[in-house]
Amino acid sequence: MLLLDGKNAVVYGGGGSVGGAVARAFARAGARVFLAGRTAVSLERVAAVIRAEGGVAETAVVDALDEGAVDDHADGVVAMAGSLDVSLNVIADSDVQGTPMVEMSLADYLSPVVTAVTSKFLTARAAARHMVRQGSGVIMMFGGTGDRAPMRAYHLGGLLTAFDAVEAMRRQLAAELGPSGVRVVTLQTSGIPESIPADADQRAAIEADLIARTLTGRAATLADVGDVAVFAASDWARTVTGAAINMTCGAVLD
Q: Which Pfam families did the record assign (predicted)?
């Protein structure tokens, strides 16, 4: 059974590691995938893999902070495919980390908040306008709110504030869009080791910390994220909205 057969799915940030993994999973589940992002080369690389596996993928260079570009792209998807059934935004939030908050500028602290709220609002709104008219659809966020314990080992700046802001947006969108048959969910992760750049400072230490926080001794993989995303986007999850789907392997307890 193809859980997403006949569905049209937009993945913002589709050229990245997480977005690419989800896009491939969507395509394997039968969806026609529309990859959007700022770098054509990375988008085409993912699209080529999907096509080689027998899937259907389209690409478009879209700045998710550009209101007109986001709206035009969503309109174009519907004009081409007839519907917009799934919208997932996995674009990394611009942030400044490594500086204690007491030494951080206001602009640096607000950077991830402004980026996250702007891109998630614009992409969700563009999708919702079409989904409300068709009476169905799924809008998905990615990341969620982490452990409430103080993150003393890291100077994360406004990143956690950005996550909380997006979660507040998700809850309000779910409340407003539910009567129109539109679901809004978050794919909650405490970190995906495979998504950490190979040349990142302290990569090994970060990966070890992510795994140590879990209850299972292993963190979620990119394949895990793709599988959960397919479930969340499908009718098998039709009762799930306004919620975060916890894939933290117990790093965050509900």
A: adh_short_C2 (PF13561)
Q: Does residue 110 fall inside a structural domain?
A: no
Which of these, 72, 80, 91, 85, lies nearest to 31 by C-alpha position? 85
Q: Mean pLDDT across the stretch 143-151? A: 65
pLDDT in tens, 82-105: 999 999 999 876 677 788 889 999
Q: Which DSSP string do the residues of 7-21 spell out, in sequence order?
A: -EEEEETTTSHHHHH
Task: Give how many domains the chain has, as a whole number.
Answer: 1
Q: 161 near 112, Cβ under 8 Å?
A: yes
Residue 136 domain-assigned? yes
Q: What is the pTM of this model?
A: 0.94
Residue 162 covered by a domain: no
Q: What is the pLDDT of residues 38-62, one digit of tens each?
A: 999 999 999 999 999 999 999 999 9
Residue 213 inside a domain? The answer is yes
Closest CA to 73 of 20, 120, 11: 11
- Confidence band for 207, pLDDT divided at 50, 70 and 90: confident
Query: pLDDT digit string (tens) for 229-250?
Result: 999 999 999 999 999 999 999 9
Query: Which of 4, 72, 2 has its CA nearest to residue 36?
Result: 72
Per the structure, the complete domain to which residue 52 belongs is given by: 8-94+118-155+167-246
List b or e across 36-67, with b for residues whose CB sees 16 or more CB atoms inside 10 angstroms.
bbbeeebbeebbeebeeeebebbbbebbbbee
115 sits in which H/E element: helix 106-134
- 87, 90, 94: which is closest to 115 by C-alpha? 94
